[in-house]
Write a structure and sequence with these properties.
By secondary structure, the protein is of the alpha+beta class. Helices cover 32% and strands 26% of the residues. It catalyses: N(6)-[(R)-dihydrolipoyl]-L-lysyl-[protein] + acetyl-CoA = N(6)-[(R)-S(8)-acetyldihydrolipoyl]-L-lysyl-[protein] + CoA.
């Protein structure tokens, strides 16, 4: 009997997965343990393993398409088995919740119109169209849209499997969009610099003369989020003529695009490459669409030639007092950071507790430990270890607000905020209270390097119960941090500053570090947070205690 293969939930934050590549095709024999496909989730690509034996009868998702968790991916069964009823049941099951929500407030006439429109959508036969839709893949659980940074191909170009057709900016990185199809680029649906919703049509690749308009129309009708009013208008007005002219309109708009005054137009990949090479990207001449600077322009850039060309083109200096500015679109990572931190700040009632800690003994202890430690121990490592030990004594701080209940975690996983070019990532040091300082130091360095190189796996960033943000190395004396959900608290650590302190009634020079604990008042009260800081202060002012 045929079995439906659905998208598994591969992480606690995963809502959708993207089929990166199919390793099996319809008609192939499949055995338990065989890898069916590669699935992109969050920041990792994982293998989808089959637990069924039989023949791959149906593939329901194209490569690079996003699939919601529990969505139908494929069907495995006996050779020649009829799966029409199973497909219908699966499709009805996926669409039922959305249809029920829409039908409840709607009148009977609207229900019948939706039923007729869905029937007409099912009647569209695209099996004989030798073309493939390229849609925006979902490259992380937080991604809602991607930005076409630049097109590397144009309409009419011959495409081979493996060719890079565009650069896509996501919330995590700027990635190259690779074609898995051979054919001609028949249609481009999005201009460079514009955002595309997940599963939105980017382009069409196929044989010359293929009826890609019908393919796009079929895709639109399958979109559950398309408003019913648009479907009704489509039926009343008949076949659209806009899609026929879409390719030529897009090409015309791309060809007519020029540099917008002094505004810099460059792909994020080109900007990063220029920054790494120490090149002033404003001196680079762009060869992309509309004069956009792309990767190869930076690679082929010669500073001497550019300076000579600039001197000839602009002999006169600009007038004094001239107003100017530059703008660039917000990266996907920055959008997600803004959304999540705004939700945390305006949902969780924050309050802040600041304390000074004398680090004289910690400085001496670190110097002594580094003489024998296999890895160099930092002050941040000592703070992580001390915080973990303090959390063991104050479990109410190691908690989460879950709406109708509070979760008190018995395990201690410390999130470590790491600054990367596009924003912040928070890798997690698990069971930090049971690890030695050298183990914490080694793991912190490894995770920090992975974060900056965007090599983190789901297990590296999930499950934090408490977070530490340290800006002391940037010369910051004191600051407050926004709570990192689902944690109830975050510790902001400033730098160690030599200052005058009073000991035994006498003034003397001491080394002081300020820490600020941001607390979610729904979970942690002032007395609880203060007791935690007192314990943390005691451990860092006498660091021998954290080794016990």
């Amino acid at each position: 009997m045929a079995e439906i293969i659905r998208m598994p939930k591969m992480s606690d934050t995963m809502e959708e997965g993207v089929i990166a590549a199919w390793l099996k095709k319809v008609g192939d024999e499949v055995k338990p343990g065989d890898i069916l496909a590669e699935v992109e989730t969050d920041k990792a690509t994982m293998e989808l393993e089959s637990y069924e034996e039989g023949v791959l009868l149906h593939i329901g998702v194209q490569e690079k398409d996003a699939v919601p968790v529990n969505g139908v991916i494929a069907i495995i069964g006996e050779k020649g088995e009829n799966i029409d009823a199973l497909l219908k049941e699966a499709n009805n099951g996926e669409n039922a919740p959305a249809e029920q929500k829409e039908d409840k407030p709607a009148a009977k006439e609207e229900k019948s119109e939706k039923a007729e429109s869905s029937k007409s959508a099912e009647k569209i036969d695209t099996s004989d169209i030798n073309a493939t839709l390229i849609t925006m893949p979902k490259m992380s659980d937080t991604m809602t849209e991607g930005v076409i940074a630049s097109w590397l191909k144009k309409v009419g170009d011959e495409i081979k499997a493996g060719d890079i057709i565009a650069e896509v900016e996501t919330d995590k990185a700027t990635m190259e969009l690779e074609s898995y199809e051979d054919g001609t680029l028949l249609y481009i649906g999005v201009e460079a610099g514009d955002a595309v919703a997940i599963d939105g049509v980017i382009a069409v690749i196929g044989e010359k003369g293929a009826d890609y308009e019908t393919l796009i129309k079929a895709h639109a009708q399958k979109d559950d989020s398309a408003p019913a009013q648009e479907e009704k208008k489509d039926e009343e007005s008949g076949p659209k003529t806009e899609s026929k002219s879409a390719p030529s309109e897009i090409v015309a708009s791309n060809n007519s695009t020029t540099s917008d005054g002094d505004r810099l137009k460059a792909s994020p990949l080109a900007k990063k490459l220029a920054s790494d090479k120490g090149i002033d990207i404003s001196q680079v001449k762009g060869s992309g669409e509309g004069g956009r600077i792309i990767k190869r322009d930076v690679e082929n850039f010669t500073p001497a030639t550019a300076q000579a060309a600039t001197a000839q083109a602009s002999p006169a200096a600009p007038a004094l007092g001239q107003e100017s500015y530059s703008e660039e679109k917000v990266s996907q990572m920055r959008k997600v950071i803004a959304k999540r931190l705004a939700e945390s700040k305006f949902t969780a009632p924050h309050f802040y507790l600041t304390m000074e800690i004398n680090m004289d003994k910690a400085i001496e202890a670190r110097k002594s430990m580094n003489e024998v430690s296999p890895v160099k121990i930092s002050f941040n490592d000592m703070v992580i270890k001390a915080a973990a030990a303090a959390l063991r004594q104050h479990p109410k701080v190691n908690s989460s607000w879950l709406g109708d209940k509070i979760r008190y975690n018995d395990h201690i996983h410390i999130g470590m905020a790491v600054a990367v070019e596009e924003g912040l990532l928070v890798p997690v040091i698990r069971f930090a209270d049971s690890k030695s300082l050298s183990q914490i130091s080694n793991e912190a360095k490894s995770l920090g390097g992975k974060a900056k190189n965007k090599e983190l796996q789901p297990k590296d960033w999930e499950g934090n119960t408490f977070t530490i943000s340290n800006l002391g190395m940037f010369g910051i004396d004191e600051f407050t941090a926004i709570i990192n959900p689902p944690d109830a608290c975050i510790l902001a650590v400033g730098g160690i500053k030599e200052t005058v302190v009073v000991k035994n009634g006498q003034m003397q020079v001491g080394n002081v570090m300020k820490v600020t604990l941001s607390c979610d008042h729904r979970v942690v009260d002032g007395a609880v947070g203060s007791a935690f800081l007192q314990t943390l202060k005691g451990l860092l002012e006498d660091p021998v205690r954290i080794l016990i």
